[in-house]
Specification:
Radius of gyration: 55 Å
Strand content: 15-25%
Largest sheet: 3 strands, antiparallel
Length: about 1150
């Protein structure tokens, strides 16, 4: 166990006096003033005799026996025992483990006390608790509550005594619980019970019960009495400033409660010991009776507005009159309209009191100064500086400005009000002479243009002409603008604002019709192109409609000439866009699309660049074979030729020309191309190109594989021949969902009908309105026969049957994903057959099909094929993604690309950076490719949005700030600048001190434009406050610096925070070690200096005492020796005795016996005989 002793100056003096006999000789051994050396007995006092040791009543002999005052330790130790029967945790395999050990550890951590547990022979628990008193008491209470079984008991005391057990703020109850290690529960005030419940150990309960009964017994001795005294006489009983009642309370020890003037009660309550309480009541009654007999009243009229001056601050004036005259002044309540003031007192004193009442009422006055309301803010000054000068000189004067009124109200002592009135009148006169104002009417719709972007225009006018311009907010819809300031500046600002307004009124607004599809192109990526137009025509405001409105109107507003120029420029731009938006479609066989794209998109990229066109290819999973080329007409034709030549070079593509009379062309093409499309589809997708209508040409071009071209040529000529002879046409109807089933896979069924009958069957295209209509063309006999066969097939399809098949549940997802797209495709292809899969979550493998019998059978066959195809080789599609976004798509260490591959179950291949290709390949099952592509394109949109956001966030703003303010703006450990950065979401860069080329007064702020401006304003506000600050040097004794700074600067930080100042102490080795610099606002600096000087005075006293103490603790460091040192010399030492007494033999065991050895008694010179 360790203890800490604190040695004060007083205890040191006591301690020292105990060690030194009557005269302190040891301290002056080497002093020149002490001529004789000390004797041997003085220097080495003998040990006390045995007899003296045994007598406890006597003091030990010699200086060693003097009592030394013990020094109390700050660490205490308590040991207490928990019997086995009261232990909570008895069943433990091994002592020191389990819940009991955890609880002890928790108690030590929470209280800071040290616990040691030991197990007695009787299995009781001994606990030693060490630490500071508070910690030990808290630990003891916790141990009792958590390691000892708890009993409970109740004690009944009168309900009115409960509050004395609780004490002020519950302190008494907490102290009692700590002292007794119990939990004391007192019923709530609204509970009628008088039972107090005590929980804890038996010993603790007994102690707590005893303490509670003691408190109650003490209160039993006390009494409470109430005395009715007229309210008017309460001031006489209380006395001036409550002194009289205070004296009575102090003398009698009774508590007297007089209701305050604001409470309409006449009862005075006395509480205390019965005898003393009776004395207090008697004295109060005596005063009351005496005043009742002697006093009389007079009533006077005093203006209601002057009542507050009679009362004074906190009623001090009334107390002052009572003290001087012994007269009580009764003022009517503030909510009463009465002006009557009643004076109550002895008749001879009433006159003096009345004089004082009128003096107080007239000591304060209310005055007003005429001042136009627009001048009020100039009189007040920036942050109230002008007004502060007056209020600091005359703090009792209250100055009130009422908005909209042309006056200033002053209230206070008459003399002070007169002085303040003179000063304010002087300020008003001066301002009227050198300032002017003017109000101008400008339509409120132009106000925001006058203000300019971020207030640029209006701030320029304010700075240029040194005026204040007040523009009403938009919500007021007011046209009135007020200009205040120097008369010349006001007129100049007025002229400029009116000119601006006139110019705006002469502006022209023009609506330009531009197709919405061109809006995005005109604006350009990140607004680059529209920014160029605005820079070219800075006076013209260009507004594009919201994309959601789908409007083609672009609005231009500005000076007439500029608007006309801008209109022509934009019309030319639109004309170029229209010219460049010429589009042609080129049919290319699907298998050759990848060859046209080329490896990594090389071929298509080259064609795009060289022909300056935009080329769009259909998606790989699309059925379309058409490539769309957009750009200038000549460029599109060149690009088409190149694409067709690639197809021709790659495959056995034949091209034949067939001469068919131009008059038959329309009939061969058919309605919306239905007839010619049926021939192209039937002949393997050949391309048949008819000449432009009106050209007069008879040449029809057929392009495709040689065998298919011949087949198409044969059919086309046959059809033309039929058209020239008499052709017969019949229309039949069938549900659209039956069409694909009638056509058959690869057109097999419909080809069989045509071969057997010789008639041509044309089905409606997707864009045709009448989707039920099927047209049969040919000779009448052939048409009738084909009609009969088709109607028979349709009739079979109308006979609905229901069937089922088994499909492994693991394949169900493929059919139902993407909202059942696969099932929709099956329904379209096989006569609208309905296919129902079991709900997800069920383990059923039964799939139900409902529809025409043939359709159901065909659909079952198709489902089986799909199941078999699910294990086939995956397919690959290519997605165009801008090269500069590839690294963001990949993500950090490939995390982004891995996430997409896992999510969509595909493989995504990004080209190597050196290729700089825009094509990303996605490989996987066809079912997953569309989702993967959509996911990738969505990610690209997100990245493009992030790029735009980064561009907006990169706005930079520089602010010029004197380098001496930089540390203050940064703050302690960067606290201030970090707060600005976080609050405004910006990055703030200070200049590098080591870079000589960099301007040291420039602070750069980066972020959103709005945020940077807000951050700049925050920095400038700090600079404004710093510019108002002053620095003062104060001489402060360097010996107290460490104490004022405190441990780790805690004390000085507290002072700086309290007074809002910065305090700098000198560095070691500074020329003036006592010079301390205080920086802040003038009033704060003065207060801080006063506080520091008070601390210096207080701490210097401790330093002086400490130095005085050092005189005793350490001998003088150096003394001028008057003679050579003789060392330590004593007189009458044994070795200097007569020759008969020899010096002790140090080798002799008799002369120097060892401890515990038996030696013969012998007289020795070292002390008394034993």
């Amino acid at each position: 166990m360790s203890s800490v002793a604190v040695l004060t100056q007083e205890s040191f003096a006591e301690h020292r006096s105990g060690l030194v006999p009557q005269q302190i000789k040891v301290a002056t051994l080497n002093s020149e003033e002490e001529s004789d050396p000390p004797t041997y007995k003085d220097a080495f006092p003998p040990l006390p005799e045995k007899a003296a040791c045994l007598e406890s009543a006597q003091e030990p002999a010699g200086a060693w026996g003097n009592k030394i005052r013990p020094i109390k330790a700050s660490v205490i130790t308590q040991v207490f025992h928990v019997p086995l029967e009261e232990r909570k945790y008895k069943d433990m395999n091994q002592f020191g483990e389990g819940e009991q050990a955890k609880i002890c550890l928790e108690i030590m951590q929470r209280t800071g006390a040290h616990l040691e547990l030991s197990l007695a022979k009787d299995q009781g628990l001994s606990i030693m608790v060490s630490g500071k008193l508070d910690a030990v008491m808290k630990a003891r209470k916790d141990i009792v509550a958590r390691l000892q079984t708890q009993a409970s008991a109740t004690v009944a005391i009168p309900k009115e005594h409960h509050r004395f057990v609780i004490g002020k703020n519950g302190e008494k109850l907490q102290d009692l619980e700590l002292k007794t290690a119990t939990k004391i529960q007192i019923p709530r005030p609204d509970d009628p019970s008088n039972q107090i419940k005590i929980t804890g150990t038996k010993e603790g309960i007994e102690k707590a019960r005893h303490e509670v009964l003691l408190i109650s017994a003490e209160q039993d001795k006390r009494a409470v009495e109430r005395l009715e005294v007229e309210k008017a006489f309460h001031p006489f009983i209380a006395g001036p400033y409550n002194r009289l009642v205070g004296e009575i309370m102090q003398e009698t020890g009774t508590r007297i409660n007089i209701p305050p003037p604001s409470v309409n009660r006449t009862e005075i309550v006395f509480t205390g010991e019965k005898e003393q309480l009776a004395q207090a009541v008697a004295r109060i009654k005596k005063i009351y009776e005496e005043k009742k007999k002697k006093t009389t009243t007079i009533a006077v009229e005093v203006k209601k507005s002057q009542h507050k001056y009679v009362i004074g601050p906190k009623g001090n004036s009334l107390q002052e009159i009572l003290e001087r005259t012994g007269v009580s002044v009764e003022i009517p309540p503030s909510d009463s309209i009465s002006e009557t003031v009643i004076l109550r007192g002895e008749p001879e004193k009433l006159g003096q009191a009345l004089t004082e009442v009128y003096a107080k009422a007239n000591s304060f006055t209310v005055s007003s100064v005429a001042a136009p309301s627009w001048l009020h803010r100039f009189i007040i000054g920036k942050k109230g500086q002008n007004l502060a000068k007056i209020t600091q000189q005359m703090p009792k004067v209250h100055i009130e400005f009422t908005e909209g009124e042309d006056k200033i109200t002053l209230e206070g002592p008459t003399e002070d009000v007169n002085v303040a009135q003179e000063q304010i009148e002087g300020m008003v006169k001066d301002l009227i002479n050198r300032m002017d104002y003017v109000e101008i009417n400008i339509d409120h719709k132009f106000h925001r243009h006058l203000i300019g972007k971020s207030g640029a225009n209006i701030n320029r006018i304010k700075d240029q002409y040194k005026v204040s311009v007040r523009i009403p907010p938009d919500s007021e819809k007011s046209n009135l603008i007020r200009i205040e300031g120097d008369p010349q500046g006001v007129q100049q600002a007025k002229r400029e604002l009116l000119e601006l307004a006139s110019r705006m009124e002469n502006e022209r607004t023009k609506d330009l019709i531009i197709e919405q599809r061109f809006h995005r192109t005109i604006i350009g990526q990140k607004g680059e192109r529209i920014r160029e137009i605005r820079d070219k025509f800075p006076e013209v405001i260009i507004n594009f409609p919201d994309p959601a409105q789908k409007s083609d109107i672009v609005q231009l507003r500005g000076p007439k000439n500029e608007v006309e120029k801008c209109t022509k420029y934009m019309q030319k731009m639109v004309a170029d866009l229209v010219e460049n938006s010429y589009s042609i479609s080129v049919p290319i066989f699907k298998q050759f699309h990848k060859n046209i794209i080329g490896k990594g998109g090389a071929n298509i990229k080259k064609i795009r660049e060289e022909s300056n066109t935009k080329i769009d290819l259909p998606a790989e999973n699309s059925n379309s074979e058409t490539i769309i080329i957009t750009g200038k007409r000549a460029n599109c034709e060149a690009a088409r030729s190149r694409i067709l030549s690639i197809q021709k070079d790659l495959a056995n593509i034949a091209e034949v020309e067939v001469s068919i009379p131009a008059k038959l062309h329309n009939s061969l093409i058919g309605t919306k191309g239905r007839l010619i499309r049926s021939i192209m589809e039937e002949c393997g997708g050949v391309h048949i190109h008819f000449p432009v209508e009106g050209s007069g040409s008879d040449t029809v071009v057929i392009r495709g594989p040689s065998s298919d071209v011949e087949k198409a040529k044969k059919q086309l000529l046959h059809l033309a021949e039929e058209k020239q002879t008499k052709s017969f046409t019949v229309d039949i109807r069938a549900k659209p969902e039956y069409h694909k089933f009638l056509i058959g896979k690869g057109g097999g069924k419909i080809r069989k009908v045509r071969d057997s009958t010789g008639a041509r069957v044309i089905f409606p295209a997707a864009e045709d309105k009448d989707q039920d209509l099927i047209t049969i063309i040919g000779k009448e006999d052939a048409v009738r026969e084909a009609q009969k066969e088709l109607e028979a097939l349709i009739q079979n399809l109308d006979n609905v049957v229901e069937d089922s098949m088994l499909v492994d549940p693991k394949h169900h997802r493929h059919f139902v994903i993407r909202r059942g797209q696969v099932l929709r495709e099956i329904a379209e292809e096989y006569g609208g057959v309905m296919v129902s899969f079991p709900r997800s979550g069920t383990q059923s493998d039964k799939v139900t099909l409902k529809g025409a019998k043939d359709c159901v059978e065909a659909a079952k066959k198709r489902i089986q094929e799909i199941i078999e195809d699910l294990a086939l080789v995956p397919v690959t599609i290519e997605v165009e993604v801008p090269f500069d976004l590839h690294r963001y798509v990949i993500g950090q260490k490939g995390s982004g690309i891995r996430k997409m591959m896992d999510e969509f179950e595909v493989n995504i291949h990004v080209p190597a950076p050196e290729l700089q290709s825009d094509i990303i390949a996605i490989t996987g099952l066809a079912a997953n490719l569309d989702r993967a592509k959509a996911g990738l394109l969505e990610r690209v949109k997100e990245l493009q949005a992030e790029q735009e956001d980064r561009a907006l966030r990169s706005f930079k703003l520089s602010v010029t700030v004197d380098p001496k303010y930089h540390p203050k703006i940064i703050g302690r450990k960067g606290a201030v600048i970090t707060q600005i950065r976080l609050e405004h979401d910006v990055n703030i860069q200070f200049p590098d001190k080591d870079d000589g080329n960099q301007p040291q007064d420039q602070i750069t702020i980066t972020g959103y434009e709005k945020n940077t401006e807000a951050a700049r304003d925050a920095i400038l506000r700090i600079v404004g406050e710093l510019e108002q600050m002053v620095s003062e040097d104060v001489p402060l004794d360097h010996r107290v610096h460490a104490r004022i700074i405190g441990a780790r600067g805690k004390a000085i930080r507290k002072i700086m925070d309290e007074f809002k100042v910065d305090i700098r102490f000198p560095q070691s080795g500074a020329p003036d070690p006592n010079c301390v610099t205080v920086t802040g606002l003038p009033e704060n600096v003065e207060e801080a200096i006063d506080h520091i000087l008070n601390l210096e005075e207080e701490y210097l006293a401790d330093v002086v005492d400490s130095e005085a103490l050092q005189v005793y603790m350490k001998p003088p460091a150096h003394e001028e020796a008057k003679a050579p040192s003789r060392g330590f010399v004593v007189r009458d030492a044994p070795w200097t005795a007569s020759s008969s007494e020899k010096a002790p033999d140090m080798s002799s065991s008799e002369e120097f016996p060892s401890f515990g050895a038996q030696v013969a008694p012998k007289t020795l010179p070292w002390g008394p005989k034993r």
